[in-house]
Design a protein that fits this description.
417 residues, alpha+beta
Length: 417
């Protein structure tokens, strides 16, 4: 097979320098007929390998017979029906070629978005663990939002995938933009709409913002392809080589990186997200006058151990309200407990698992209450107690025993003199 560089050299020598065919053949070490063929060809030679048979060729008629009746039959079932003796890779490759002839091809149209129309959201779980205190490291979810028109990217790490935490993260990202997109696109995240219908917290959130949450069809990641690509961009361009000493450190590094990410030129829109954000912003709706219902909340009767649980962490409460109902609220930053409208506990939120957060004031109050209760019980028992045989035994004060044994405990200042 004549090489392309030899073909080019033959044509140059003959046409540019007028070298005879015989001399060209001698110089290049090729046959004169090869030189003639190169001069007669206007295109460079192309190597073509002779077609070889494939192990699936003999089984293809039976594959097609099965697909004719059951177009979506899985590859393992087809392999069993036709007695496939090889590995599954060649079979799957052949099925990928011929199955569209029976099930049809589902083309995807390119979607364009108007300014302020859509924001896509998703949870991304970075593999790098984050230190959360108490010697623990966790893989924590990151809420990612991408605006449809400008491709403006924003993200925030949250402590859990519970509805209250996800909604808190959504409100933080939307507040940073400063206005509300007309539609928020989500997949079927359990806390948002796992059953195909919006959960009550998600519906209340959307109602307060006067927007709508649209759920993607099941098993259709292309429906929110922009935010899926944003997740991949974070995975490959932000995460590698980074370590995080806390969730706050993750969010700080993420914010610094996003300033650069939103200043890059996006090929699909031929522009920079930071420059196009203004158009998105002007077409969005204003923020609501009140904050939407976000965060975690619960109402319980405070037990004797004076602790309440948020996620998997226990937080101390003023023990003076034991036995009364308390309202527990938790944002991404802190946990606050109310009793009859009064704050009875305030803690920085812990993102660790099975942690215990205790306010020293609460512990000291509990200790004083226990001592006071013990003294009260002693007073109520009276100055006598009963012996085992039933007769009364007088209880003496401790100074009486000191005098009996000749012990004189004076005040430290008196002893010093």
């Amino acid at each position: 097979m004549l090489k392309v560089e030899d073909w080019a050299e033959i044509r140059r020598l003959h046409r540019a320098e007028g070298v005879p065919i015989k001399e060209i053949a001698r110089r290049l070490g090729v046959a004169r007929n090869t030189v003639r063929a190169a001069l007669n060809s206007d295109r460079p030679p192309v190597f073509q390998r002779a077609p070889r048979g494939h192990v699936a060729d003999a089984f293809e008629p039976r594959m097609r017979a099965l697909l004719q009746e059951w177009p979506t039959m899985p590859a393992p079932v087809i392999a069993e029906r036709i007695g496939w003796p090889y590995s599954s890779a060649p079979l799957r490759k052949r099925l990928a070629l011929i199955r569209p002839e029976y099930v049809g091809i589902d083309p995807v149209d390119r979607v364009t978005y108007e300014p302020g129309d859509v924001a896509q959201l998703d949870l991304w779980f970075p593999e790098t663990k984050v230190q959360v205190g108490g010697g623990q490291e966790r893989v924590l979810p990151v809420l990612v939002m991408t605006l449809g028109f400008s491709r403006y990217l924003s993200a925030v790490m949250i402590p859990s995938r519970q509805a209250g935490d996800i909604l808190s993260g959504m409100w933080q990202l939307i507040s940073q933009v400063g206005r509300v997109p007309k539609t928020l696109v989500w997949d079927r995240e359990a806390a948002i709409g796992g059953s195909g219908k919006l959960t009550a917290p998600a519906a209340a959130f959307a109602g307060t913002l006067a927007t709508r949450i649209r759920l993607a069809p099941p098993r259709d990641p292309e429906y929110k392809g922009m935010v899926e690509r944003s997740n991949g961009y974070l995975e490959t361009s932000f995460l590698p080589g980074r370590q995080f000493i806390s969730p706050a450190d993750f969010n700080r590094q993420r914010q610094e990186w996003l300033l650069k990410a939103n200043s890059r030129t996006v090929r699909s829109i031929q522009g920079r997200p930071a420059d196009l954000l203004e158009q998105d912003y002007l077409s969005m709706m204003p923020l609501p006058p009140v904050e939407p219902p976000i965060g975690l909340s619960s109402r319980i009767r405070l037990a004797r151990d004076y602790y309440v649980r948020v996620d998997t962490t226990d937080y101390s409460v003023d023990p003076q309200v034991i036995g009364r109902f308390v309202d527990v609220t938790a944002s991404l930053e802190e946990v606050v407990v109310f009793c009859d409208g009064q704050v009875v506990a305030r803690h920085e939120r812990s993102w660790a698992k099975q942690a215990v957060v205790t306010d020293p004031v609460h512990a000291a109050t509990a200790q004083r209450m226990r001592q006071a209760l013990a003294e009260d019980r002693h007073r109520r028992q009276g100055a006598t107690r009963r012996h085992t045989d039933g007769h009364a035994v007088a209880l003496r004060a401790l100074p009486d025993y000191d005098a009996l044994f000749g012990v004189d405990f004076e005040h430290p200042s008196t002893q010093a003199e």
